[in-house]
Structures are given as C-alpha cells and as structure tokens.
Amino acid sequence: MDLLLSVGLPLSLAIIMLSLGVGLEIADFRRVLSRGYPFAIGALCQVVLLPVVAFATVKLFALTPEIAVGFMILSFCPGGVTSNILAKLAKGDVALSVSLTAVISLLSLVTVPVLAAWSIAHFMGEDAPEVSITGLAIAMFLITTLPVAIGISLRHFAAGFATRIDAPLSKLATVLFVLIVLAALAGNWQTFVENLGIMGGGLVTLNIALLLMGLGLARAAKLSWNESKTISIETGIQNSTLGITLAALINGTESGFSPLALPAAVYGIMMYVVALPYIAWLRSR
Length: 285
Prior knowledge:
By secondary structure, this protein is an all-alpha fold. The chain contains twelve helices and no strands.
C-alpha cells in the first residue's frame, strides 16, 4: 500500500495530467483572450463560487473535521479531462471547456496549496497535520503542471506522435482513475461505511447545487445556451484524482489512504450518477 501511495498515486495523476496536456493546443490559451467574458464567468464559478458552496455544504451537514477538509480539497480541484468529455456529450461549447480546464489547472498550482492549508487549519485546529505550502506547490508542479506542459509541448512540436498516443493515454488514464478510487475506498472502508449516509448526501447536494448554480449564473450573465451548459459542467465536475492525491500529500503515506481522500473517492463514482441524467436533460433542451 505504501508503494502504491508514494509512487503509484503521483505517477498515475501525472499520466492523467499528461493525457490532458496532449489534448491541448496553444490556441486553447489564446482563446481566453478572444473570449474573455465567458471565460471570466467560468473562472469566477470555479475559483470563487465552488469553494464557497462547498464551505456552506460542510456547515449545513455538520461534517466531521477530516471529511470537511476532504470536501474543501475537492472543491479546489479543477475539472480535468472528465469535464471536457461531459461538455462534449452535453453538446456544449467544448473549446470553452478546454480553455477553462487548461488555465484553471495551471492556476491551481498557486490557489490549491494556500486554500488547502487554510482549510486544514480551520477545520482540524490542533489536530491539523503540518502543511508546507511551498512543498505542496512543488509537488503539484511536478505531478500536474509539468505533465500538462509536456503534453502541450508534444502536441505543438510533435503533433503526429501526440495524436497517436492521445487515445491510448486517455484509456490508461481512465483505468488508473478507477483503480485509484477503488484503492482509496478500500483503504478507508470502515470510515467510508460510517460516514456514507451524511457524506453521500452532502456530495449529491454539492454536485447538484454547483451544476444548477453554474447554469443559473451563466444565463444571468447572458451567455449563449452552449456556453451556459459548459459553465455548468465546469463548475459541477471536479478532478477527483487530484483530490485523492492531495490528501496523500498532506497526510503522508505511512498509514495508507487518509480519510481526507474519502470525499474525492466517493465523488469520483457519484458524479457520473448525478451528471449523466443532467446531461441528458441539457441535450434535450
């Protein structure tokens, strides 16, 4: 288990982020400048609205400190490859989805370590583990930002090779995602069973609230229907693998998967249960 956590988990996330980078182009970043308003609404939803709603959910359900921190860590994570796929399924604005994923994923290098350290101190108090913001930022750079940058470089300088490895990498990323979620659940099975009712209710509430609030804010901002669908999905879908990895980085790997990883692990399965019927509704509109 220690080898899985200390080597396998960061490596798996790096491969997932490499898969994300291979699917990106320099144009995805340039698009932010040409479509600043829709991007700004999406960024506002992800960086500000999402953590605020997660904090309110934690208070509403009176979650235990470790589970509460896990909720907050999940809320700091960007969308990832999954949100791009779901935006495509919903017939949304895929280009906007990719742009948001790309920029917010890189921005998370700065935002996530600071916000995660604050959450741990706020909810766990004297029981909080010592968190090095600098150490967390360096680790995130190595397993998220650097692989994305390598993937983008491959797409730019070796487009043919990037195209050939795109599909296999995506399949490998999916398999790794499933294995990580199952391992996190198995490593905290008793805690999972004891907290499933209230944690599951909180996660479903959070997921539905974010999807609807993202859609509502986008419509209030007078974005197009396709743009609004994308903002909704980018707001409501998080990179749960990153959440699990962050929990391991914060609590260490000596004692197995941390309970901090449970919300992200459960969410990794549950988000599809909530999102797929919602996407079917979006497609029908």
